[in-house]
Amino acid sequence: MKRVFKIFSVFLLTSFLSLGCSKFLDLEPPYTQDAENFFQNESDYLRALTGAYDLLQGVYVSFWIGEIASDNTIAGGESVTDTEGLHQIDNMTHGAVNNELRSLMRYNYCGIARCNFLLEPKDNEIDFPSKSVIFAEAKFLRAFYYFELVKVFGDIPLIIDKRLGGQEVLETVRTPSAEVYAQIEKDLNEAVSVLSYKSESSHSGIQGRVDKGAALSLLGKVYLYQQKWNLSSQTLDVVINSGNYTLGSDYSTLFQEANENNSETVFDVEFSSGQGGDYGCLICLEGNVTVGFQGIRSYDGPVYGDGNSYNLPTQDLYDFFEYQDSRREATCLNIDEFIANNSPGTTYTQGGGGHTGFYNNKYIKSALEMGNLGDNDLTSGVNYRVIRYADVLLMAAEASNENGDTSNAIQYLNEVRNRVNLFQYEIDVTQPPWNNFSDSQNSIRDIIHRERRSELSCEGHRFFDLVRTGKAASEIDGFVVGKHELFPIPQDEIDLAGGNWSQNPGY
Amino acid sequence: MMSVNNCFSRLYFFIVFSIFTFSAFTQSIMVTGTVMDELKEGMPGVTIKIEGNPTGTTTDLDGKYTISINDKNNILIFSFIGYKNQAIQVNDQTKINVQLKLSSESLDEVVVIGYGKTTVKELTGATVQVKGESIERLNIPRMDQALQGQVSGVTINTNSGSPGGSSSIRIRGLSTFGDNDPLILVDGVVYDSEGLNSLNPGDIESINVLKDATAGIYGVRAANGVIIIETKKGRIGAKPKFEVGSYVGVQQTTNSLDLLNAAEYALIKNEMFIRGTGSPIFNNTDLKVGTNWQDSIFQSAPIESFNFGVTGGSKKSSYSIGGNYFSQDGIVGGDKSSFDRYNARVNLVNSLTDKLTLSSVFLFTHEERKTLPENGLGSVLYNTINAFPTRDIRTQDGRYEYLLEVNDIINPVAQIENTHNNALVNKLVGKQEFEYKINKNLSFTNRLSYNYSSVDNKSFSPLAWYGIGKYANSAINENLDPRMVFQGFQLSDPDNLVYDSILVEQGASVYEQRATYLDLNFESYLNYSKTIDDHNIKATLGTTVFSRRGDVLNGTAFNIPNNSIDFADISASLTSGQINLNNTGSYEFEERLLSNFLRAEYGFKYKYIFSAILRRDGSSKFGPNNRFGYFPSFSGAWIASDESFFNSKAITFFKVRTSYGISGNDQIANFAYRALLNGEGDYVFNNSIVQGVAIGTPSNPDLKWETTRQFNIGIDLQLSNIIDISANYFVKNTNDLLFQPAVSSLIGSYGPGGYPPYVNAGDVSNKGVELELAYATDPKNKVGMNVNLNFTYIDNEVKSTPEGVDFLPGAGFGVGGNTATRFEVGFPIGYFIGYQTDGVFQNQEEIDNATVIQPGAQVGDLRFVDVDGDGVINFSNNSDKTNLGSPIPKFMIGSVLGFNVFGVDISTNLYAALGHKIVRNYERQQPYANQLSYVLDRWTVDNPSNDNPRVTTTATRNGVFSDYFVENGSYLRVRNVQIGYVLPKNICDKFGTDYIRFYMSANNLFTITNYMGYDPDIGAAQGALSNGIDYGFYPQARTIMGGVNIKF
């Protein structure tokens, strides 16, 4: 019996151990950090800031929409069901079920959540010298993400300095766009007050981190979109008068990787060719997907690399440019002409998603990129130029003109035209047609709008410019006034938020 | 929590002490003797009882016993599990020797249930047993496939027919979003279902499938049912018995697709392009047959198996030892898709003392598996189906032909040649179990079991070129020049983030991964059993502690010399110095469970049996809020045929069973309740990629157990002692499903490395009926037959979805965004949803006069049904999409039919799955891609087809996901046909053997189905919502083999 008791005591002991010792289940995740109580030092904030920058790379969606929805380009691709959402947007047949619009919403809100994670009040907030700069950059990024959303969807829920739980989502409403804009302005103004220009020693000097010029320019653009002409003009003039920017000398090479971060660069989204990737997760890539996607389909020849024939310029755009405007060739690659002149015999194929004879020559895969890591359609290191100085000048020109300062407007306009050796507008306000102020302002407005198309086509601005200036209906086939100014909120997003949001009109 | 713990420990004390209070014995006349088995060896452990008296004794190790009786008229009952009872009246004998006979009665068969054994008769749960013999006899290389169609209520679908591939095993339907695998125990050791093919079918003694709530003794994961596999064991005192078996066979594809040949392809494509672009692509369509790409990749492949086993025992120990070598090449790719397996097994049972028994199990497996890309865009079969028949395999100058016109289709023959994926698995599974018989009523078992595996993967990617623009290119041109990539590095000044970069040659690369996994499980339990008069009491009380850890280390090395497999090792990499492309990765995980369980069983006269189970599980998967779950279940049985009023001659046994219980599931990612910074937050600064941090999956501290409530009612019936019938009706509701449904973008989880938070949401119901019928003549008869039929009906329905979610979108169709499946209330999990077609528009008037506007419709296009009745077919929202069928078979029927006539045996094994659909998703919807020949019946002016739309390269809606792509998936398959011959005893004796059987056997001989794809038996390789979507599935082979089994 003694042995029996021995065994029993072992058994009881193990039972007690297992019952009493629920600590056995207290495991800590190995080699990773918890989101709570994460921010312990400067480096933690910096790493979280890098995480917030990451979503800038999702800008490709609104870049595509900005062109494909407009009269500039068609969707293209392998077939009409290849990225079907873009084809629907191209044809103005898009509805509330559209993967591209959903991606756009997802990426930008993810960026916002990452900014909010950094900016949210913390129990044990630490302080260090560079913190205000880090916060200022996070606010810039949050403003950028909100601006992307508000210009596409209009009213959108505004979430500031907190992370939402599942229940809180159900309580959200669509914040009126005016309030969203107010928050964007607030964030940008705060960023402007803290950040310094890249040229100043107080800036970290790290390429890719935004500076005061970027914040001012984005703020000026945000004012412009709201037709706050005065504020826009003032803000953009600060950038112009800062002396930090000049136009690059050669427009045709402006979009090459070698010419990144030059004197014309105000705000770039940075990409790298240093990491491979696949189609499974485009937002995970560090390469610029638009470059490979816009490459020439099955092309085997010099200069260019093969790609997926997306976002193809239209004949309308090609024909739009002024006589001898070199920006035409720099924007639209006439593929058959190019092959005939440069490498007869080179072949390519036409995608089933459409063919115009033109390729987007600003962001297009080059032969140099053929050797990149796999998949080389996805690993271009070419930065996306979000705001370049020419855009700042044209926005400032537009705002000046609307403010009545037509001569300032013409001066900025001519600066942009001068780079590509086009004739300069001269205005004598005593002579017709310029002696009637109203006519003159209208003419200059048209000229600036035309100039924007010549200068900035295939860079993702066109659709939003057309909507903003009220010209979309006359330029875009199928555009319905009162409906297509905004895109529909993805139906799934309405449902997932509890079904309480209204849809945009017409959808 | 502590107070609950205290409750539990008090309970322990109470039970332990109450157990000790029982004891009784008497004395009078002594009877002694020996009990022997059929081989006249002494049998230990045989129970001897006096009829009408609850007391009794058992035989010792030599089979000897002593029992005292008070009356000469007493009748002694000798019983042993698996043997027929014998009753002997004592009279004047004082020495009674008995030889027990093996029972052929199914009711006495031993069934392994959780932490114990019982007989079929006493079972209260819905449990089915499959004999190892019937698995082994099928000669189906994989355990999981061998189980298909053997047990009602168990659905087995093949995830891949490639050698060493896996299956999805579903007991009573799909009940959850994530892991639907049942708990699999091999000799009590937790085994993963993926790894089932590492078992040697020849080692299996029996498989018991616990389908209902009585599986709840296993708590966690019992929600998906439990499969208990027992390996062969020896018997104490038995002479050694040797078994040798071998078979050799050849495998072929069962099916090849009816694809267009070159002439047909040219005809169709010309028509397509003329309609699209205005000009044909072939000037000459007289192209004959062209290349049959399927012939170029399918081949006959060998399969072979050698098996060896010996069982026996000495006075104090028994042993069973087995060994197996199995080798199989693939019908696609031959030795590039192969599986070799070596098994070694040792089962030892040692009686250390009269009361203490040590059982040891060691199962060692070594596997070598090679694989090709399978199941999806980019797989070998996908490329094969879509490759152009107008191209040769090679050009005249000998290089592989490029298939340039479709970006992601590459030459499948070249692809096979360039694929080198090897996996090496070493697996050691075992246990040490001490069973201590405290007294004749009470035993105490402690066991430590382990499952250790080390998995080595190596893939070599040589420099390869498939033509311009192909995703699979690893070289930059046809000269196989390597890529040169910029590699950034930080200069050595740590204060200033100064970066530079240089060009590095990438070259051929090799990826290696070593993963080791270790499960450790300590279990300790008491079993109590006592009979007092007509009352039987059984109790089990125990605790288990389980830990699973994994450790994974991997690396990629570039610039492998000579572009050669001979140097395919990280060590051979030529990249030099500090700056190279080689990279490494690693991760570790650990998860734990802590559980207590209690089972109490009460039987009255073996007629009324009740059982109750309570299990408490704690899992490290959940946060402190909801770490522990309590899972009770109850079951009962009434053996009506034992009632005195029941005196039917025809019905020799009749039992009614019922059970109800709750079980839990914790199969989600570790630390899902917390928000970890495991997202990806990389951005480019100074032209270099800088790693930031980001939240991966947002937290949900309230995450709790997913629970399954299951009700079962069933009957077991025996007719005239020869026909066994069993029937069940069950309702299984799974609530609080654990998964990651889509969430609002506002939560911010859709960035790089981000996933939606885990939640408990959604309910699924499975209802069904199961029937089993078995008939067998006495196997000793010279002429006999056996029949085994089983039938399953399952009705799967989603009962609720997460708040704010009408449905959850599932797997995609084609390329670019069509969603084909959903998880939606009122429909089966993963049902197909899309547009319904209604023929083809035959002429312009039909379009013009149609009451429903179909945007963009032209003559020859599919006509869709306006489901929502708004007069328009909506392509930009979901309003006209409708249910196109379910991937889950409504009915499954399995049958085994066998005859034996004077030594010749013939058997067939059939399996049918009926009432489900399969999506044809292996066709690239692309102008140049090859197509199945049904397209020849496309609509043209001259061929006014109402089934197939016109062909064109221009934009149409014919490619949207519709019932045009959904096929009837029902099939009937002859899984095995076998003819064998057992040599007569006298000839066997001449060879000094007991038994010799020769056989010829065919697996998957033929399949009756309307499905156009390779194989209708397809699983869900990519999760529950990808069920029934055929991505170019690697089919199961048809195998013809011959073999021999010898016993001596």
Structure description:
The complex is a heterodimer of chains A (507) and B (1048). Chain A has 507 residues and is mainly alpha-helical. Chain A contains 20 helices and eight strands. Chain A has helices at residues 2-20, 42-54, 60-68, 84-90, 99-119, 131-153, 166-170, 177-194, 212-225, 229-241, 289-293, 315-320, 327-331, 335-342, 389-403, 406-419, 437-456, 462-468, 472-475, 491-496, and strands spanning 73-76, 265-269, 296-297, 306-307, 310-313, 332-334, 358-360, 384-388. In chain A, the strands form four sheets. Chain A has a two-stranded antiparallel ribbon. The model of chain A has no long low-confidence stretch (mean pLDDT 92). Chain B is mainly beta and 1048 residues long. In chain B, 7% of the residues lie in helices and 46% in strands. In chain B, the strands form 13 sheets. Chain B has a 22-stranded antiparallel barrel. A five-stranded mixed sheet of chain B has the order 10-15-16-13-14. In chain B, a hairpin with an 8-residue loop joins β11 and β12. In chain B, α6 (380-386) packs antiparallel against α7. Chain B is globular, with a radius of gyration of 32 Å. At the A-B interface, α1, α2, α4, α5 and α7 of A face α1, β24, β26, β27 and β28 of B.
